[in-house]
Amino acid sequence: ALYDADLAVSTTGTAGPGPDARGVPAGTVWLGLARRGARTTTHRLQLEGERAQVRAQVVDAALAELARALG
What we know:
Elements: E1 7-14, E2 28-35, E3 41-46, H1 51-70
Antiparallel strand pairs: 1-2, 2-3
């Protein structure tokens, strides 16, 4: 492994301003959380707003998920 991390978070999706080339609507975002020794979880989010707002919301969601994982 490149990093000896116990916890990792990832995001991907379509922030906008419109749907992507496959027709996935703007605001469709996936959030992943991996923890050493535990099952990786994913969540699909459907966020509202302009591109910058969607990006800010997914950062907030990722940080909240990390905070929950750290307990």
